[in-house]
Amino acid sequence: MEWWNHLWLNEGFATWMSYQAVDSFFQKWNILLDFLENTMSTLKLDSIAGSHPIEVEIHHINEIVRIFDDIIYIKGASILQMIHSYIGAERFQIALKKYIQKYAYSNAKTEDLWVVLEEETGEPFKDFMSTWTKQPGFPIINIKHKGKGIQVEQAQFVLDGSSRAGLWDVPITLRCSSSTNKFILKHKHDNFDVCGERERGGNIWIKLNVNETGFYRVKYDKEIKTRLQNALEANEFSSMEKIGILENSLMLSISREDTLASLLCIAYTCREVADYNVLTHIQAITITVYHVSIDATPNLVADIKKLVTKILLPPTLKLGWDPKDGEGDLIVSLRETLLVSLVKLGHDHTISEGLRRFDTLIHDHNSSILSPGTRKV
User: Fold this and answer.
1) Start and end of every Peptidase M1 membrane alanine aminopeptidase domain (predicted)?
2) What domain range is 74 assigned to?
3) Does the residue 111 lie in any domain?
């Protein structure tokens, strides 16, 4: 790096490459889910007033220590992941090879990377990527049908719901059921001739941010959101995309861009999912909503408790109380978490079954009726 302003070129790249390397050699580890978790945490950090740009002007050596944070490391890695997804792995690798060869044994700055990417792909990286590195924050993308295509509008996403004037050139990936599209939103709003009239019939759905590689939030209009939920119920999305949809809905609810009812509806739609990572998010989100509602909306607590119980009960019944041969530690942990949640929600059958098993154990200390993974219940 030429100067500390460009620290992210070292640290963001190192972070991104560490995940890519592990995923390349050990795909069964699903390490990119961990990358997504870190990205989602950094999206929260970058949506508050105290955030800073990826490129921070450093004028004195004493200022250096304050920039070693998740904005440099994780947001830096995340915008590389966004570019990688948008232009494709092969073109990105070719451009990256040229960049490394060109600046081997020398220093480089952020603009040098954009120039090489621009030369290789023909995309105007030098112009539009400065919007991602020189200002804090990120956009929320609003999408709705308009005529034979879609209308897309951006605004800065702020967790407290306040208004700010950030503007980005956003590389957007989009799926219309089986087809995939991509485009760059360069203005406050624009119209795009994708997912048009011929694709709006039947059960065709639209989802922005394919595989959750974009560093932005998405807000759908009522029609598109309904179809997205239908696709979610039909299991059209990967675990990564399901987690992204849940997290996106949670953040929209917190920022008052969308309703709590919408969040709970999406969680309810996912109640039959059999994936540990998705179920962990559903449990964390719904239990948090329940605890917050006790103080925030006491008149709705009873209804929210019933709904959260309905959401968490199906996966709990599938797992049962007793461990199965060959199941991993994560499933053992999930079983305990779900059962404890139902007890806290006052679910009568779970409480009575727990008491029955505890009573059996008291009278027979050698009984295996309570496994180590359920004794906390």
Assistant:
1) 1-132
2) 4-133
3) yes
